[in-house]
Specification:
This protein is 40% helix and 16% strand. The chain is an alpha/beta fold. Helix 3 (34-45) crosses helix 5 (100-111), helix 4 crosses helix 8 (182-188) and helix 6 (124-134) packs across helix 7 (145-154).
Length: 206
């Protein structure tokens, strides 16, 4: 942790609360990006360091190191840019507490796309409002029958929505409905992601 802190804080040790209050400062580079400068940096410095330990009520468990999140997010970033997602595009996430949320968040951060989290309890009306108000280009959601039903009903009224991606697909009845598989996209994408430069690069206030 000190390795990361020392890059952005002139001082990381203090003699007292008053010393901390008066002298603590954060110096954030103009091109700071959490995905590259924290997640990828941890992966470089401590490749096997645990980043996420996840479980659910169905006894599923998943442990990811910073290296694994870095690599998965690189693949997903390539997959999403292959679908035309670029800096500034809006992507709506309906993933409850799935571990894939964090891979999506880091991948979108690397691209410079904007993440909008949403609850899985949204109705068709709610989805239409959110998707249109944000002009969302893609939706990533868990494979939930209720969510898929609401999305299908909302779709005709959401002209900007180009891609729908399903996470944790448990059945095959979604095939042929225009959905894409998260797992297949990640598996088939290149692991070689290059940090964007020029106009596509991100800044610390994006």
């Amino acid at each position: 942790m000190n390795h990361i802190l020392s890059k952005y804080c002139p001082r990381i040790e203090f003699d007292s609360y008053e010393d901390f209050y008066n002298n603590f400062a954060i110096e954030v580079p103009e091109n700071f990006n959490f995905a590259y400068d924290v997640v990828d940096e941890w992966a470089r410095v401590e490749p096997q360091k645990k980043a996420l330990v996840w479980c659910n009520d169905e006894d599923e468990e998943k442990t990811l190191t910073f290296t694994e999140i870095s690599r998965l997010s690189d693949r997903l970033a390539n997959a999403l840019t292959g679908l035309g997602i670029v800096k500034g595009d809006i992507v709506l996430l309906v993933l409850k507490q799935r571990w894939e949320y964090w891979v999506c968040a880091i991948a979108l951060n690397k691209i410079g796309a904007i993440l909008i989290p949403a609850t899985a309890q949204l109705t068709k009306k709610d989805l239409v409002y959110r998707l249109n108000a944000s002009e969302a280009k893609a939706l990533i959601t868990l494979d939930d029958a209720y969510v898929r039903e609401q999305v299908a009903a909302a779709l005709p009224e959401c002209p900007t929505l180009e891609h729908r991606i399903l996470v944790n697909t448990k059945t095959e009845d979604w095939e042929g409905e225009g959905w894409l598989s998260f797992d297949e996209l990640v598996e088939q994408a290149s692991a070689d992601w290059q940090r964007p430069t020029g106009d596509a690069a991100t800044t610390n206030d994006d």
